[in-house]
Amino acid sequence: MDALVDFMLDPAGAAIVLFALFFGLLALGTPISIAIGVASVVTGFAYLPSNVIGFVSAQKMFSGIDSFTLLAIPFFVLAGNIMNKGGIAIRLINLAKLLGGRMPGALAHTNVLANMLFGSISGSSIAAAAAVGGVMGPLQRKEGYDPAFSAAVNIASAPTGILIPPSGPLILFSLVSGGTSISALFLGGYLPGILMGLSVMMVITLFAVRRGYRTEGSVGWSEVLHVIWQALPPLLMIILVIGGIAIGAFTATEGAAVAVLYSFILSLMYRMASFQEYLEVLKSSAVTSCSILFLIAASGIMSYVMTIAGIPDVIAETILTFDNPIVILLVMNVCLLIIGFFMDLTPAVLIFTPIFLPIATEIGIHPVHLGIIMIFNLGVGSMTPPVGSVLFVGCAVANLRIDQVVRPILPFFFATSVALLLTTYVPWITLALPRFLGLM
Fold first, then answer.
1. Which pTM was predicted?
2. How far is CA 109 from CA 99, 221, 304, 355, 413, in A?
């Protein structure tokens, strides 16, 4: 036992024990929050007395969620769920059909645009994949699209919703990184999110021309105006919430509360949800929010243990030995992509932000740029097996097995990876809007 403690007192040894326990517990089917907490407490025994570690762990869990900023997460979750039930998704899909109808493979392009629009309002790639995929899948099937290709399009474009604000992961990054401006992060996500969507649309165009997927027919001006009029109220929410946050009219948390009120009023106007459905929305939002907040609380223990063990410093020193910013950024991207293959986005942001932030600071990467790079990477990871949450949802909505979708999704994976590298090595893509509006 003494030998094990001595091994753990070395930062490298502590890192090995911490992550071996964590991934071992995950492999056994342990919930990720519990795995984080148990691995952290066991590692912490090497640094704190047994009668202290329990008290400190409870303290770190409480302090980890004792934040006004975090209230934005349950509010945005609730707003997204109300929109999903309130008939807003179909109005945005109709607008997307209008925008993408003249391109080859029109319905596939519509799927991408709808995911970008709905994801930007709901703030959830999973909600976008479910809501948009559920509507677009049958339409594409009816027009002769390969079901696996349609599912791959939906899965690859859904993560744009976590880059185009409002975005829960960007709020988390702001918190974990020590208060990076949420307004700057939100605005910084627009161009990378659009670039991600365009990369998917480029692949669609190539496949559509080769397979002969047709464009949509022309639409009369009266129908165009009707579709725009129906989609205008949901789109105004983006201007209201993001614009209000950007100009300082209210904080991100207050903006999230405004989003809930606005989406509730819209759903009442559209009369698309019953009283029972509103109760279900509240219940599902509470469950989702509690699971996220408990995960954040457990991650507070892990962050503390990693800090006292000196693990971030060791990892930073190892990566910085490459002594070339281009190579260091490439290594960080590869690490984050691999992390995204095996870990969901929320715990990955909580665990690895304290590790990569000092490295980014050392090589002159702005925290806003790092935040977008991390979320972009983990978004790409969410569409890949074995743990990709968007992949699972997209396959479930399309009634397909994962192995049927893996091959069609590969071209989209490579295209979005190219967009990721552009975002990484051209900081202007991320920082132009925040700087133009004086947020940096």
1. 0.81
2. 9, 21, 45, 38, 17
